[in-house]
Write a structure and sequence with these properties.
globular
Length: 171
Amino acid sequence: MTRRQRVRSNEVAPQIEVMVRSARWKVRPRSAALVRKAVAAAAHAVSTPPAELAIVLTDDSAIRALNRDWRGHDAPTNVLSFPSLEPGRGTAAAHHLGDIVIAYQTTAREAVAERKPFGHHLAHLAVHGFLHLVGFDHENDREARKMERLEVEILARLAVPDPYAAPRSRN
């Protein structure tokens, strides 16, 4: 067994609290379990230390207000990430990585427009949001390619096809 394998076998999955803040999510009762699984896979892939985070499943109205107030964009979006400003200070205890907020209507619209199963798109947004919490970004082409490659790798482990591949036409 290599050192890397030993380290990975000792990893602790992050503590993930999922809060459903919109009744719209009731039509997708497995969403909380799906985002937990996607984030756990992402945490394993980037070898995060013990950590905790919150995922809020909300609607377009709530995410629009957050997007306006925090990013200056007065429009709904699919996912927002809010990294913690003061992560744990090297203690063995879990530290709060931050929060991920996902909007139901935008996620559903995009899944239909991109001809993807809702669950696949939701898993992608959860992974994408998590990677932002741990420092990945897509501010330039190089960073975007690196982040996208990692997303594709993580999603493949979840049996989710490459979200950046061109959609297949339906016959």
